[in-house]
Write a structure and sequence with these properties.
There is one protein chain. By secondary structure, the protein is mainly alpha-helical. The protein has one domain. It has helices at about 45-65, 80-90, 90-105, 115-140, 155-160, 170-180, 190-205, 215-230, 230-240, 240-260, 270-290, 295-305, 305-325, 325-330, 335-340, 345-365; strands at about 30, 40. Strands 1-2 form a two-stranded antiparallel ribbon. α3 (about 90-105) packs across α11 (about 270-290) and α6 (about 170-180) packs across α8 (about 215-230). Keywords: Cell membrane, Membrane, Transmembrane, Transmembrane helix. It is a multi-pass membrane protein. It is found in: Cell membrane. Its main location: membrane.
Length: about 375
C-alpha cells in the first residue's frame, strides 16, 4: 500500500494535514487580481479544494486508526469498502494539498531570504516542534492508538529531525520552501526531474521510508508543480467545464483500475503519474464546485482554517479511540448495522468540530503562540 491541497493574490495564503503563511490564515481573504474596477475576487476554488483535502485527511485517519480497529460483526463487507475507498483517494489527497500549497507559495519564494526564513521556514518548523511535543504528551495517554509516536528522548529527537511524525505536512513545507528558495534561479528542468525521480523512488519502496519519510519524498514534485505551473493551473481552473470534469474523473477511475489490475502500485513512476491524473481531476472538480456557492463557500471557509484541524484532530481522535471501539464492538448485529455505514462520516464530523472548538478555546485563552511563531504577525501555511 502506498503511503501517504484565475490567479491567487500577490500575498499567497494558507494544511495544512491539513491539515494547513501556508498559509493557514483564518480571516484573511485570498483574492484574484484583474477583476472589474480593480476589485479582487476570492480564489474560492483553491480554498474549497483545501477544505475537501482536510476532510479527507481526517476521514482517512478515522478509518485506518479507529473504524477498522472495531470488531464489526455485521455480515457485510462495509468496513472493507471504507478502507478500499480511502486507499483510492491516496493519490489525490496529499498531492492536491501540496499542489495548492505550491500555488500559494509562488510569490513568497521571491521575497528576500530573511522574510522567507522567518515567516515560512522558521514558522513551519516552530509549529511542527510545538505540536510534536503536544502530540507526544497526549498520545502517551492513549498507548493503544495506532500511530507513530515518540516513546523516548531519542525517538523524539528522531521525529524532530529525520523521521517526521504524523505532523509531517508542516515539516515538509519547511523543507520545500527552503529548497524552492535555494533553487529559484536554477533551470526548472534541473529541479523538477530529480523531484519526479525522488517521488517515483519513494513510491516504489526503493528507499528506506520509516515514519512519514515516504510522504516527504513523494510530494515535493507536487509542491514544485504548483509553484512553477501556477498560471497554467489558474487558467485550467478558470476554464473548467462539465465535460472536462467527466473526462478527468473518468481518467482517474481508469488509471486506478489499471494500476490495481496489473498490481502496479509500486512500479517505478506509476504513483506520480496516477497522482497527476488525480490532481488534475481535483482541481477541475474544485473549480466546478465553485458554481454551487452554498456548498463551495462552506468548504472554502473550512479550507481557510486547515491548520487547527490538522494539528488538533489526531489527539482528539486518539482520546475518542479510548472510548468508542470497546462499546461499539460489544453491540449486537442490529446495533452495529445501524452504525457501520455512517460511522466514519459521523466521527469525521465530530473530530473536525471538536478540533475547531478546541482551537476557539485556545484563542480565547490567548494561546495564539500555538498557531503562529511569536513575533511574526501571521503564519500562513501554503496549503
Amino acid at each position: 500500500m502506498i503511503r501517504q491541497p484565475t490567479s491567487t493574490d500577490a500575498r499567497p495564503g494558507e494544511p495544512e494535514p491539513d491539515v494547513t503563511h501556508a498559509r493557514f490564515r483564518h480571516r484573511r481573504h485570498r483574492t484574484l487580481p484583474g477583476t472589474a474596477a480593480g476589485r479582487p475576487r476570492r480564489a474560492e476554488w483553491a480554498d474549497a479544494a483545501k477544505g475537501v483535502c482536510i476532510i479527507l485527511v481526517v476521514l482517512w485517519h478515522v478509518v485506518v486508526k479507529d473504524y477498522l480497529r472495531i470488531d464489526w460483526h455485521v455480515g457485510v463487507p462495509v468496513p472493507g469498502l471504507w478502507g478500499a475507498l480511502g486507499e483510492q483517494l491516496l493519490p489525490l489527497r496529499m498531492p492536491l494539498f501540496f499542489t495548492i500549497s505550491g500555488v500559494f507559495a509562488a510569490n513568497a519564494v521571491q521575497r528576500p531570504w530573511r522574510v522567507v526564513a522567518r515567516g515560512r521556514i522558521a514558522g513551519f518548523l516552530y509549529l511542527y516542534a510545538v505540536w510534536l511535543l503536544i502530540h507526544t504528551a497526549v498520545l502517551a495517554a492513549a498507548p493503544d492508538f495506532p500511530t507513530d509516536r515518540a516513546t523516548s528522548a531519542l525517538g523524539l529527537l528522531e521525529q524532530l529531525t529525520i523521521t517526521p511524525s504524523n505532523l509531517w505536512y508542516l515539516y515538509a513545507l519547511a523543507l520545500y520552501f527552503t529548497l524552492a528558495k535555494a533553487v529559484r534561479r536554477a533551470p526548472r528542468t534541473l529541479v523538477v526531474v530529480p523531484a519526479a525521480v525522488l517521488s517515483s523512488v519513494g513510491a516504489a519502496g526503493l528507499l528506506d521510508t520509516p515514519g512519514n519519510r515516504a510522504g516527504l519524498y513523494q510530494n515535493l514534485i507536487f509542491f514544485l508543480a504548483g509553484l512553477y505551473l501556477r498560471p497554467q493551473i489558474e487558467r485550467w481552473a478558470a476554464t473548467a467545464t462539465g465535460r472536462r470534469l467527466a473526462v478527468t474523473s473518468g481518467a482517474y477511475v481508469l488509471v486506478l483500475a489499471a494500476m490495481a489490475a496489473v498490481g502496479a502500485q509500486q512500479w517505478f513512476g506509476v504513483w506520480p503519474v496516477v497522482s497527476v491524473v488525480a490532481v488534475t481531476f481535483g482541481i477541475t472538480a474544485a473549480a466546478r464546485l465553485s458554481r454551487w456557492p452554498a456548498l463551495s463557500s462552506r468548504l472554502a471557509t473550512l479550507g481557510r482554517i486547515t491548520l487547527p484541524i490538522y494539528v488538533i484532530h489526531m489527539p482528539v481522535l486518539a482520546l475518542l479511540h479510548r472510548l468508542l471501539p470497546g462499546p461499539i464492538s460489544g453491540l449486537d448485529q442490529v446495533g452495529q448495522g445501524l452504525l457501520v455505514l455512517g460511522y466514519p462520516i459521523l466521527l469525521t464530523g465530530l473530530v473536525t468540530a471538536v478540533s475547531l472548538a478546541v482551537h476557539r478555546g485556545l484563542l480565547a485563552l490567548h494561546a495564539r503562540w500555538l498557531f503562529a511563531l511569536p513575533g511574526v504577525r501571521r503564519v500562513e501555511a501554503a496549503g
